């Protein structure tokens, strides 16, 4: 069914061929190829209604399912381009949920096509398949690998281009317009008769493009008021010369996809050409020349068949109404106000800290020299000023003045005289010498002996 919708003045929503027929007399109430606008906050103007693309898609799907002879099926699967991100998928799922289709299975189009091919060809595990999908508005290239039964995963990042069959239709239409000049420029673009005639001409251009896949020449009928020309000729060579740059671009994208997945053309188990525009003979020729192997278009509806197989084999998830908090991706935040770079203050802070440390060391040198004897009377080592050392804390590094080196006396218990300093390791720094020792406070209920300023635990 064509992806076309028509909104009548009384609110009736028509889809597919019915919408195409009504659009001939009222072209301002039709929308085509709305799938690619999903996630775009700008609504589509269809007659008097303004609807987002995901809402139009949901209504299209509901009308399609309600028109089936057997009614709605138990499960529904909907394919989407492989490159869609989470935002677009959540926007679509929210619109489907609002339309009463909360349990729809969303399947990437390349995986769906390969799944349908596997149902016929029975691919081996590990087999890689290239998918060239040239649809109505977009092109997609992907490499899909079969890991196990009914499990297909992308072998690398897909590529997408914003071109497709509608662009080829426009090429044919512009060819006809050039053939109708100067009479075309004299038409009233807003005249009701002209609008209807132009809509019919566009439809004839699409039909002519499709016929050129089998014929070498077509005649495009023209029925415009005030123009005597009734037919415009178009040959296949002329048509292919007009679309060749776009086709070559798609082939280059397929080659990049193969390289990104680390797969060479001779390693591919199959190459699937899907999408209506992939049936153009030039497409088959260019892809075959690029890959060095013969390829042919896949049967119609490969992605739809794969989606049906996916819906049959996967249990639907619990119905959860998705809520889209945004109708478009969030805008970038406003730039934050500039602040001074704090990194530039680090050298000054470090210099200040060094000066304080040196001054503190000199001051401690004088103070500790005058109180060297008083520090050891209690059997503990003096810590830094205003610091209390507990038994459960790690040793504290002390800074004491230089003292003469002398042999350590024998340990004495509960001595009341100051101990003689022990040999210390002296580290010399610019303009000051500091001595480092470690102190360990005595554990409770033990006899403490002091040897050269170091506290040791004796026998109980």
Automatic annotation (TrEMBL):
Q: Which keywords, in A-to-Z order, does the entry hold?
A: ATP-binding, Chaperone, Membrane, Nucleotide-binding, Stress response, Transmembrane, Transmembrane helix
Q: Please list where the region (Disordered) is annotated.
A: 375-460
Question: Signal peptide span per the entry?
Answer: none
- Do the record's keywords include Transmembrane? yes
**Which InterPro entries is this protein grouped with?**
ATPase_NBD, Heat_shock_70_CS, Hsp_70_fam
Query: Which Pfam families does the entry mention?
Result: HSP70
Keyword Transcription among record annotations: no
Entry's transmembrane regions? 345-364
Extent of Low complexity compositional bias = 378-388, 413-439, 446-460
Q: Which family does it belong to?
A: Belongs to the heat shock protein 70 family.
**Name assigned to this protein:** Hsp70 protein
The record lists the lineage as: Bacteria, Bacillati, Actinomycetota, Actinomycetes, Pseudonocardiales
């Amino acid at each position: 069914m064509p992806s076309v919708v028509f909104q009548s003045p009384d609110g009736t929503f028509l889809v597919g061929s019915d919408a195409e027929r009504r659009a001939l007399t009222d072209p301002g109430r039709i929308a085509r190829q709305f799938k690619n606008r999903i996630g775009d906050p700008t609504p589509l103007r269809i007659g008097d209604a303004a609807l987002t693309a995901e809402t139009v898609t949901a209504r299209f799907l509901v009308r399609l399912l309600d028109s089936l002879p057997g009614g709605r099926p138990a499960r529904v699967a909907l394919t989407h381009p492989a490159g869609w991100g989470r935002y677009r998928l959540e926007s679509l799922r929210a619109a489907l949920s609002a339309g009463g289709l909360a349990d729809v299975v969303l399947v990437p189009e390349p995986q769906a096509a390969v799944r349908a091919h596997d149902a016929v060809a029975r691919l081996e595990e590990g087999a890689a398949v290239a998918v060239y999908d040239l649809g109505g508005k977009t092109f997609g290239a992907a490499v899909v690998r079969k890991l196990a039964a009914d499990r297909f995963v992308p072998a690398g990042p897909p590529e997408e281009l914003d071109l497709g069959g509608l662009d080829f239709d426009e090429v044919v239409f512009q060819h006809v317009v050039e053939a109708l000049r100067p009479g075309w420029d004299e038409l009233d673009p807003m005249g009701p008769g002209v609008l209807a005639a132009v809509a019919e001409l566009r439809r004839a251009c699409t039909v002519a493009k499709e016929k050129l896949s089998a014929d070498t020449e077509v005649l495009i009928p023209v029925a415009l008021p005030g123009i005597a020309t009734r037919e415009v000729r178009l040959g296949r060579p002329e048509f292919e010369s007009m679309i060749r740059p776009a086709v070559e671009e798609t082939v280059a994208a397929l080659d990049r996809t193969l390289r990104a997945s680390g797969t060479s053309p001779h390693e591919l188990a199959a190459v699937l050409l899907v999408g209506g525009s992939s049936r153009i003979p030039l497409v088959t020729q260019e892809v075959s020349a690029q890959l060095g192997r013969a390829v042919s278009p896949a049967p119609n509806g490969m992605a739809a068949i794969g989606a049906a197989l996916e819906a049959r084999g996967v249990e639907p998830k619990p119905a959860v109404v998705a809520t889209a908090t945004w109708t478009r991706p969030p805008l970038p935040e406003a730039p934050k106000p500039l602040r001074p770079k704090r990194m530039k203050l680090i050298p000054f802070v470090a210099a200040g800290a060094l000066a304080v440390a040196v001054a503190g060391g000199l001051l401690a040198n004088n103070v500790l020299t005058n109180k060297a004897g008083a520090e050891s009377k209690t059997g503990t080592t003096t810590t830094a000023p205003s610091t209390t050392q507990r038994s459960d804390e790690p040793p504290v590094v002390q800074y004491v003045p230089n003292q003469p080196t002398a042999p350590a006396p024998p340990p004495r218990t509960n001595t009341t005289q100051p101990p003689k300093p022990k040999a210390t390791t002296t580290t010399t720094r610019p303009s000051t010498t500091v001595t480092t020792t470690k102190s360990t406070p005595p554990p409770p209920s033990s006899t403490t002996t002091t040897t050269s300023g170091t506290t040791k635990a004796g026998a109980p």
